[in-house]
Amino acid sequence: MDSTPRRTPTLTKKDVAREVSASIGEPLYKCEPWVQATIDALRDLMAAADPEVRIELRDFGVFEVKKTKAKPKARNPKTNETVFIPSRRKTHFKPGKKLRETLQEPLEDLGYEIPEGSADHPSRRARAA
Questions:
Q1: What is the C-alpha to C-alpha distance for residues 53 and 10, in angstroms, rounded to an integer?
Q2: SS3 call for 90
Q3: Which segments of 12-114 are extended strands (E)?
Q4: Rounded distance between C-alpha atoms, residue 100 and residue 112, angstroms
Q5: Could you report the per-residue pLDDT of 7-36, keeping only the tens digit for each?
Q6: Among the four 13, 18, 104, 122, which has the fewest Cβ within 10 Å?
Q7: 10 Å Cβ neighbour count for 53?
Q8: For position 6, what pLDDT does the model report?
């Protein structure tokens, strides 16, 4: 068994543009600006949130900008010093129903390797039996 951890593949904006290009039958060079414009629009809408906003994309999910509460007694774990963290805005993504259902399918049913230490890993099931 290989002891080096495998890196999770990273998909980029260009990969998204390739998917768009393949799905609508347009050349990649035409799709890249559309993808960039969509990402820019989402970023601008979220940055302009006053102070909260909800961007709902049907059949995909909801992007939200939410307020956080100030934390007057947070602790720096390195120095053990108590620090004040002011309230701010944060982003949150909630997947839509179709995406959530797809992601909730068991890995075993999809033919993927089950992570070591997982409750449904074969070595754990063998010990439990």
A1: 28
A2: strand
A3: 53-57, 61-67, 71-75, 82-85, 89-95
A4: 18
A5: 889 999 999 999 999 999 999 999 999 999
A6: 104
A7: 15
A8: 78
The enclosing H or E element of 41 equals helix 28-47
CA distance 14 to 74: 39
Contact 55, 45 (CB under 8 A): yes
Can you tell me the distance from the alpha carbon of 37 to that of 63, in angstroms, rounded to the nearest whole number? 17
Could you tell me which residues come within 8 angstroms of residue 36 by beta carbon, excluding any fewer than 6 positions away? 13
Q: Name the 3-class secondary structure at 56.
A: strand
Of how many residues is the chain composed?
Answer: 129
Q: Which two tokens stand for residue 44?
A: 């601008």
